[in-house]
Specification:
The chain has helices at residues 16-26, 32-44, 60-65, 95-102, 120-131, 151-165, 201-207, and strands spanning 3-10, 72-77, 82-87, 107-113, 136-142, 172-177, 220-222, 225-227, 239-243, 248-249, 254-258, 263-271, 274-276, 279-280, 284-289, 300-302, 309-320, 331-337, 340-353, 360-362, 372-385, 396-400, 407-416. The chain is an alpha+beta fold. Strands 7, 8, 9, 11, 12, 13, 15 and 16 form an 8-stranded antiparallel sheet that branches.
Length: 417
């Protein structure tokens, strides 16, 4: 069964957690004891209704403040599809959480309060979704019950959001009027909005086409682990384990190994369930080659006529995530890209971008917590990558503090040189 990963985003109190709680509740994806716990907590808080937001706001601080702080992951399934939800925070100071939660999403839900329209955070999250190349964006105009399900208010939000989205690169944009509190247009179509002719949110999530979003053209296999023979019975077994990062591999395919440039042929591909005749992302497999080539962790197996870029110089959009430090020119950091680790120097910060206005601040002195900018990086060893817009797996990386190994930034590659 196909998996859909989606993230929710929006301003504070737009109802993200309530919407997810409603989806879980109406699809019968919560246990009875969970529901009883939420009902009891709702009564303690003085609510006259069951606060479904408590199903995702698991941290005590979140419940006390009524906000989402950390990224909460929830799972549910329908007969058509399985879903992984990332409930990301709305506060501006948690931009880094939004970036990490949405980085693997196929689709993002941006919630907009029908009473307030498109606010600064709505634009921020639309920009981040565009930057992260999330193919599908659904704008849920929430709290329609508080404006008597007014069609004009919905159309006004739709027009305002569309005008901003025209400046961004969003391939698929949809709008759905909902009430997460009452369930209107969430799982079932609502009779209270007869003017809306589209599908419910769940139906849209079940039907949205994501198979063509993944890169099945550029064959990329970063080697994570070399499996050597452990006993005499399997003395001739030597396989290379990892996760397919793009394209399709089959036994008999001619391949090349980077950085050595040695060529070989795929002898077999093994999965957890046994030998397979085709492997594609994001499958985790063990690949065997016909010739005994020197391969180690961090190397990449690809096709001879379709190889990634190889360079020590990267151009990247970087989101700075550290509270204690700032990114400054000539700063040295550790980089983790696919299965390859390297040391890098931030040679230049070209510009910092205001994610609300899309204005570029040319030649900034530094990047601070939650700020995003274009940075030139110089690596101590060659990296094998594609531009992020072509392959999200081989076009992304993280930066770490060399002394503590704490992750300080996430980056997406926009070019080399």
């Amino acid at each position: 069964m196909e998996f859909l990963r989606f993230a929710t985003a929006g301003s504070v109190d737009d109802g993200k957690s309530t919407l997810i709680g409603r989806l879980l509740y109406d699809t019968k994806s919560i246990f009875q004891d969970q529901l009883e716990s939420v009902e009891a907590t709702s009564q303690q808080m003085g609510n006259e209704y069951t606060n479904l937001a408590l199903l995702t706001d698991g941290l005590r601080a979140e419940r006390e403040q009524g906000i989402t702080i950390d990224v909460a992951y929830r799972y549910f399934a329908t007969p058509k599809r399985k879903f992984i939800i990332a409930d990301t925070p709305g506060h501006v100071q948690y931009t880094r959480n939004m970036v990490t939660g949405a980085s693997t999403a196929d689709l993002v839900l941006v919630l907009v309060d029908a009473r307030h329209g498109v606010v600064e955070q709505s634009r921020r999250h639309a920009f981040l979704a565009s930057l992260l190349r999330i193919p599908h964006l659904v704008v849920c105009v929430n709290k329609m019950d508080l404006i008597d399900y007014d069609e004009k208010a919905f159309q006004s939000v739709k027009e305002e959001f569309r005008n901003f989205a025209m400046k961004l690169d969003i391939p698929d944009l949809s709008f759905i009027p909902i009430s997460a509190l009452h369930g209107d247009n969430v799982v079932e179509r609502s009779a209270k909005m007869p003017w809306y002719e589209g599908s419910s949110l769940l139906h849209h999530l079940e039907e949205v086409h994501i198979a063509s979003d993944r890169n099945h053209i550029d064959a990329r296999f970063p080697v994570q682990y070399v499996i050597r023979p452990q006993n005499e019975e399997h003395h001739d077994y030597r396989g290379y384990a990892g996760t397919i990062a793009g394209g399709v591999f089959k036994p008999g395919d001619e391949v090349v190994v980077l950085p050595s440039g040695f060529t070989s042929t795929v002898a077999s591909i093994d999965s957890y369930d046994g030998p397979i005749f085709e492997a594609f992302g994001p499958m985790s497999v063990t690949m065997r080659l016909t010739s005994d080539v020197d391969i180690s962790r961090g190397d990449m197996i690809c096709r001879p006529n379709n190889q990634p870029s190889v360079s020590q110089d990267l151009q990247a959009m970087v989101c700075w995530m550290s509270e204690s430090t700032e990114l400054v020119p000539r700063m040295k950091l550790a980089l983790k890209h696919t299965t390859r680790s390297s040391r890098v120097m931030a040679s230049e910060i070209q510009y910092r971008i205001d994610v609300n206005t899309l204005h570029r601040d040319e030649k900034p002195e530094s990047l601070k917590l939650n700020e995003i900018g274009r940075v030139s990086l110089r690596s101590t060893q060659p990296l094998f990558f594609d531009e992020y817009r072509r392959n999200r797996n081989t076009g992304s990386f993280i930066l770490m503090d060399e002394a503590t190994n704490v992750t300080v930034a996430a980056g997406i590659i926009v070019g080399s040189g």
